[in-house]
Amino acid sequence: MSEWLVLSIAMASACAVVLTITVINHRRVGEDDDPSETPDVIEYMTMMIGVVYAIVLGLAIAGVWEGRSAAQDSVRQEAQALHEVSARSEVYPAEVRARIRGDVDAYVSYVVNTEWKHMAEHGSLTERGTELLEQVRRDVTDYVPKTDHEGQAYQPLVDQVATADDARGARGAGAEATMPGVVWFGLIIGALVAVGLIFTLQIRRTGRELLLAGLYSALIAFLLFLIWDFDAPFGRGLSATAGPFLDLFPEATR
């Protein structure tokens, strides 16, 4: 099922529940009921709880967005480091250069075509990807430079492989969900409380009040969906992409 379809269903369901409760509650209210008699303390408490929950939602969104940005940065750093390895191996003999570039291409192709899907489904890296990157490392470190020019390029190549390995580790660490279960519990309970409190204000069946109640509940449903979607940096619709790999290694998808 499409994530946007899930979002639409969630928002529509939230609106339907709130509006249904409002209509049912209105039918139970007597004709002599005066909505202006709502105690001021209830209005104050409703406002304060809404403000506190809005702050919590903002912090949660900022946290998962930061995690997604960090995941995308790790992908960019890994792709750039591997591109540097491939480019700087130009100073090596043709046989060594071809071996290094071939193994770099094999690793990138595996990451884009196989490991990316595994990360999305399981939230972890694969052993095969680790082996392919280790092969690139051996290609670089096992070669003994024979000229000063090759010697000057050796250490930068080793450093770039180390950078790629570090970025790969960061990519693996960011593949899992970042929001603890207890935080989700608080967000969901807070949403129920925030929406439930609007019924203490004795909203009526006027078009304006029903519209505002529906929009309020739909907004909270949308924000919770946004947090859920960003919570898996590599696994959902607004996730980090393999774009940096594809930009620097356009042959990777073939």
TrEMBL record:
Sorted keywords for this record are: Membrane, Transmembrane, Transmembrane helix
Parts of the chain that traverse the membrane: 6-24, 44-65, 182-203, 210-228
Is Membrane given among the entry's keywords?
yes
Name assigned to this protein: DUF4239 domain-containing protein
| Organism superkingdom | Bacteria
The record, for InterPro entries, names:
DUF4239
* Pfam families membership: Bestrophin-like
Question: Quick check: keyword DNA-binding in the entry?
Answer: no
